[in-house]
Amino acid sequence: MCQPEGQVNEPASQATQGLQLLKAPSLPCHTVLMTFPALGTLDFSLLYDQENNALHCTISKAKGLKPMDHNGLADPYVKLHLLPGASKANKLRTKTLRNTLNPTWNETLTYYGITDEDMIRKTLRISVCDEDKFRHNEFIGETRVPLKKLKPNHTKTFSICLEKQLPVDKTEDKSLEERGRILISLKYSSQKQGLLVGIVRCAHLAAMDANGYSDPYVKTQARPCTKLGHGQLVWELQGPCSHILHPSPSQVHLAFQRYLKPDVDKKSKHKTAVKKKTLNPEFNEEFCYEIKHGDLAKKTLEVTVWDYDIGKSNDFIGGVVLGINAKGERLKHWFDCLKNKDKRIERWHTLTNELPGAALSD
């Protein structure tokens, strides 16, 4: 045990002296305090749900947090941040607990649209902060967990000592920042003789407004493949389609638009309301395109996400194209739908900043 500086030890017996020869030399007390700052400990668990592309972060409790307020207590909350990534959509937080240094949250925060690639290259930053109503919130301590340490579908529990704040590489964040992700479902219905296209939700959308958010909505357009070498398009997707809405209490102000054939007057477009001030909107919208199953191999589906603006042109956030001309997971998703009639196939897709040719304007 460390002795205070200037204190003299009592003489020891010969037996005790013999034992003391075997002990490692003690470090000065001030050295120990510098090595282990009293920021507190944090208990939490992480689970990567591979099938649903979701990362569940359960924040359990903290102990012995550093006092931050004049009353010797703190108003702590926990903030999550996926690195690299500068978007607000990468950040989640718990509720704030008042006047405590030993808070118990037992709160689960979930990131959607997490891929196996994310689990290899991303790191989860977990910060404990003190909320202050009259000043900027204060940082208490943090820890970082490389997601590659997690096994899919296995919960890993952590009990760690909080550390001082580490710098974030802003350059790396900017270079790897994405436009966002979108969860799309496809199903060919034998009963309805049509393709059911579902826009389920988006995640980690790019912020387009000055407030750090967007007012997103989605457009889809079913198109035939281009006849290579002739520079023309042949439109074959005809007939009515039905609009099926599955609302939930949180699903307000959302927008969705689709096209069935070229229409200069935009009479065939359908929009819902815009989802206000969010980077992780839930849509749960489904549309049925009447089309023969054999004709699907000739079609492509363009999906674009937009930010709604009043009084000016809407901003393009990102898009994705599914179909015979697509590549990788986008092509696989399309053919999985063709091969599995009456089975709903859901896939997350990364939005690109390339605007599909058919969606040149809102």
From TrEMBL:
<dbReference type="InterPro" id="IPR035892">
    <property type="entry name" value="C2_domain_sf"/>
</dbReference>
<dbReference type="GO" id="GO:0016020">
    <property type="term" value="C:membrane"/>
</dbReference>
<feature type="domain" description="C2">
    <location>
        <begin position="38"/>
        <end position="162"/>
    </location>
</feature>
<dbReference type="InterPro" id="IPR047022">
    <property type="entry name" value="Rabphilin_Doc2_C2A"/>
</dbReference>
<dbReference type="InterPro" id="IPR043566">
    <property type="entry name" value="Rabphilin/DOC2/Noc2"/>
</dbReference>
<protein>
    <submittedName>
        <fullName>Double C2-like domain-containing protein beta</fullName>
    </submittedName>
</protein>
<dbReference type="GO" id="GO:0061669">
    <property type="term" value="P:spontaneous neurotransmitter secretion"/>
</dbReference>
<feature type="domain" description="C2">
    <location>
        <begin position="178"/>
        <end position="349"/>
    </location>
</feature>
<dbReference type="Pfam" id="PF00168">
    <property type="entry name" value="C2"/>
</dbReference>
<dbReference type="GO" id="GO:0017158">
    <property type="term" value="P:regulation of calcium ion-dependent exocytosis"/>
</dbReference>
<dbReference type="InterPro" id="IPR000008">
    <property type="entry name" value="C2_dom"/>
</dbReference>
<keyword id="KW-0479">Metal-binding</keyword>
<dbReference type="GO" id="GO:0098793">
    <property type="term" value="C:presynapse"/>
</dbReference>
<dbReference type="GO" id="GO:0006887">
    <property type="term" value="P:exocytosis"/>
</dbReference>
<keyword id="KW-0106">Calcium</keyword>
<dbReference type="GO" id="GO:0046872">
    <property type="term" value="F:metal ion binding"/>
</dbReference>
<keyword id="KW-0677">Repeat</keyword>
<dbReference type="InterPro" id="IPR001565">
    <property type="entry name" value="Synaptotagmin"/>
</dbReference>
